[in-house]
Amino acid sequence: xxxxxxxxxxxxxxxxxxxxxPPVREANAAEVAARISGGPRLVVLDDDPTGTQTVxxxxxxxxxxxxxxxxxxxxxxxVFFVLTNTRSLSSEDAAARNREVVRALHAAAAxxxxxxxxxxxxxxxxxxxxxxxxxxxxxxxxxxxxxARDGVVxxxxxxxxxRLTVGSNHWMRTADGLLPVGMxxxxxxxxxxxxxxxxxxxxxxxxxxxxxxxxxxxxxxxDLRGGGPAHTARLLSSLRGGRVAVVDAVCDDDLRxxxxxxxxAEQNGARLLYRVGPSFVRAxxxxxxxxxxxxxxxxxxxxxxxxxxxxxxxxxxxxxVQLDRLRERGGIAEYELDVALLLDEERxxxxxxxxxxxxxxxxxxxxxxxxxxxxxxxxxxxxxSLAISRRVSAALVQAVxxxxxxxxxxxxxxxxxxxxxxxxxxxxxxxxxxARGTLLPGIVSLWEPVDGPAxxxxxxxxxxxxxxxxxxxxxxxxxxxx
Length: 482
Prior knowledge:
Strand content: 15-25%
Distance between the termini: 46 Å
Helix content: 25-40%
Mean pLDDT: 93
Low-confidence stretches: none
Radius of gyration: 22 Å
Shape: globular
Number of strands: 18
């Protein structure tokens, strides 16, 4: 658009942002799949578990031993996810975890005789440890003898959720139009807040000025749609010294053109890292969008109880609205974990046990909701806020573990990124799973655990910041119908 973002009346009608764009260059998933066939495996290090929400029939690991990684590399899939959950960690711990995963992956790939390319999956609303994670991955790959990275390709678009990049500006869809992400509630995140909606300026902001905005390569819709894969591949092949490229995307075709360009650039020797939102993964893996799972497809998966468990840790406003709509539909029994009691060491354990016992008892007659109190408690600084979040999440996990030990729910829904990760790994003991598809188009992922105490129980990963007001209730209706 012609006016700077700060000069707009916001939000902006979507048509105003998209007017005058070059026509879409069609690229189908089968073309991408053929292009990447026999090439290196795409390995997605996911900083929370919600990145699987655009793909289907893809392996997911919550553990990264060499054996686990070799299992994933042996599966018939162009991509797999490793759930690092680093968005919930301090900078130091996030760096250490990335190093640990890459070292194990390098050993596993050598043992299996296969190559790999790494995607660091971050949030489509730009939260997370950037540039820390891609910096650490680049350093580690160099140290392992895989060569220095020529560039980092930043693609935060999430098409289904309305996170679009146009003219290197990143937008999010709201009920009133498109809003620059720098003006959203997510930009005020206590840990990962930012100001810039222009991706080059955001890179400058997040690198503390180390990477000036004018040194960032901009891959625009003119490049993708007008120039096409060969032209875009030449741009990406020009990256040197770890330079950052930011990429526009409004639809899946844009991302598939990018995927074809990346395959060509990498075949010609470019060594790249990706920092991406969820939609890129589907495009780069050569998958087409799929319809949500049907009741018939869900029916073989279930626990022992006639009803399911919903675990809510997310505090964003959208989650609160979705909870309200779920209450209006009925059929739930609701139990609150009081954050004040969870932070009180003397009363914490008894409070968790009381809530878990009540929720387990309710599963014979209703879907049980365990949620944290809705007043957000923050710390004195970003790390203190993260520590509080981890304490609260640990309590939710403990409650889930106690419920599942008493009565295996028909299904488990986890609402919120950190909540989803901790519930999967610590609450349900999932190490290996398959992301089977979505309950709602492109935004709510269903995992089938293949091991541990939750084997066979549908596990639903539901990000805090996606879907409309009725999304949680709609997902529950589908699960109930199965």
